[in-house]
Write a structure and sequence with these properties.
The protein is mainly β. It is built from 2 helices and 33 strands. InterPro entries: Bulb-type_lectin_dom, Bulb-type_lectin_dom_sf, Pan_app, S_locus_glycoprot_dom, SLSG/EP1.
Length: 397
Amino acid sequence: MTPGSPMADGQSLVSAGGIFELGFFAPGDAKKRFLGIWFRNVSDKTVVWVANRDAPLGEEDAHGALNLTNDGNLVLLNGIGFVLWSTHTSNAVSPVLQLLDSGNLVLTGGASSNLLWQSFDHPTNTILAGMNIGLDFSRNIDKYLTSWKSDSDPSPGEYSYKMETRGVAQLVLWKGNTEMYRSGPWTGEGFSGRPNMSPNGLFDFQYTDNQSGLYYTFQVLNATVLARATLDQNGNFQRFVWTEGSSEWKLFWEVPEGQCDQYAACGGNGICTMLYSSSCICLEGFVPKSPVEWSLRQYSDGCVRGTPFNCSTDGFRQVQNVKLPDTVNAGATNRTPDECRDWCRNNCSCTAYAVFEQSRCLTWFGDLVDVRMFADGGDELLVRLAASELGNLLSFL
């Protein structure tokens, strides 16, 4: 698409390989219309990006149009020429708009086709292969997902899924300002809270943490498979695949998944598990803070240490197959396993540590929050205990 050739409602822009389509649509039973991108050859029309989420075309705007100006501003106009949405770009030479087979809508300009704007920098409720969730430091962009309000209203809903950078980075699902779920830190093969992100031949999950940015992305390893991950209006982050010959999207996995994915289900220093009759137990060396409430299966108060630790004689208890605690109160350094253990032991405020990829040392300070136990997979956490506790089992079922 070039200047002087606007796209009217009823027309569309198709990617070179015919995988994605940009056009106007009315979601669900809505009367209002939006500009969006969807999978072109999927029978169940699946929208993956919406431009004018907060400014729909009304029933009276039957002649809405997408226009590219000579200086490189992409604008969506209603029937009377009022601008509903734009890319706010300008001063471009010979601008061109393209929809790529990745689903990325790209605006370039100049003889070198310099990037002016791209839809991948402005996600709505869906991440596609090659998209990022996280921070682009060089351009000061925070990319995150926000749910639709409903099936017929793509305006921003109450849920968001974004990179939390306090402490050690992790993905967090929010309902307004309330934390609902977190992924745990990246461990080299996936996030600690998702053991099924290990190499599987279908997806390649990637994590970048350097001077250019801090973000998560994925690639699809089979060219015949379509994939997306969507944050729905109920706060579920769901990964779907569509294979050749399919008639519907197949759910690959979703979060939150069960009670133990709910943030801090067992309070501080508790472990959520589906392996026992009770969903919450205390970490070894800890006891319920409110025994009466705990006996009634009210776990929000969590657990406290049975014996205060003594910095000079403390040791560590291994806790295996777990989702690592909330990393808001954690730090990360490059140390060998022995160096990590010694550093934590010599720092009296360090309450636990973990090591992965042989040299990435995570250390926690304060309560250990939102730990869950898996039947298979997960990581190893080493929890600081007083010497007198190291031979005792003080978990409460």
